[in-house]
Design goal:
α13 (240-252) runs parallel beside α15 and α17 runs antiparallel to α18 (348-359). The chain has helices at 5-17, 37-47, 51-65, 68-85, 88-101, 106-119, 122-140, 150-163, 165-180, 185-198, 205-218, 222-235, 240-252, 257-272, 282-306, 310-320, 328-344, 348-359, 366-379. With 395 residues, the chain is mainly α. It has 19 helices and no strands. It starts with a helix and ends in a 16-residue tail after the last helix. It has a domain at 5-181: Serine Threonine Protein Phosphatase 5, Tetratricopeptide repeat (Alpha Horseshoe), CATH 1.25.40. Helices cover 72% and strands 0% of the residues.
Length: 395
Amino acid sequence: MRRLLDSLLFVSFLLSAGALTASAQITRHLSVSAGSPEDKALTEINATTDPAQKLALLDKFMADFGQGSLAILGNELYLEIYVEQKNTAKIYEYGDKILAADPDNFDAAFTLTRTAGDAGDTDKMYAYAEKAAQIVQRFKTKPAPAGANPAVWQAQRKNDLEQDSSSIAYIEYEFYNSATQVKDMNQRAELMARYVAAFPDSSYTPEAELLIPVSYQQAQNFPKMVDAAQAILAKDPNNVDVLLLLADFYSDNSQHLDVAETDAKKALDVLASATKPILMSDADWQKQVTLQKGLAWSVQGYVDLSRKLNAPAVTAFQTAAPLLKDNPEMFARNQYRLGFAFVNLKRNSDAVQAFTDAASVDTPYRVPAQQKLEELKKAGAGTGSGTRHAPTKPS
């Protein structure tokens, strides 16, 4: 970020060049007439190193000249001093004064965001980060000044954004990282929705958007989960993560089985031609695709099982099994459900193997799988007979 002191240096540059017009910046810089009383006062403030003396001179400057744009400049100087002193209360006070008078002052918004983050005041940090994001978005769409060459203006604007890119990236990360640490999943989902609205172009936005339905899912707020997922698919119908999220949810609850099947098959179609993200390693990409394909096949298996189509269910579950090996819980669930499909087909020896697989890893499916093994043992599993009262699928 261009420190607030740079505002003074920029003024000095303008004065030495005899310029009296503002330059295009995300934060608007001010200028004063060379040799004017205001210029002399600013020069004296800038030359003073003692904090108490600097504050006294600044108080006098504000008393003499603190109107309009010079009031903003004075408050920027107060802010710089209090940042150096780490005076959080004063930083908030003067940062808010600057934004009230100059809502597009990115430097002030950045300083407030950083201060609130350092102080652990996350509510303030989120609010200030959103203000900073709004400033950036307004700047990106700001028309060229009257009489300016549009091409020159676009180049200047691009350059200004690049100069502040590290500060923008800091704000994006501070908001996103803090929101991911929130334990209340409903609150985290709401924060991620705010993030997506504030930072539509951030590199974290795709992850933040996905975390909205995922967080609602973890909160068991399923109506909002479905709404958030469908909102993503309305913009990106080929989003594999969301297709599988909805397919798994619907199939798991025996709801909208046609939709679950359609979404699972579409995910497989998309994965067949998907390309690896540039920043992802080949190994990580292969692991992700393998797991997603496994989940899609497992969903298909449970849809078939719910429809009492046991033979196709076995085929789908068996296709999924080796693909899910790296995810113990998904693998155990798949094998547990496969066991029921075998039971329904009176293939109890195969069912024993499936339930044994499900019980072999430490997941929530271990105990119910062990119970099914006991039932099959009592029913004489190896003989080919079926259990009398076995349900058609897991309850």
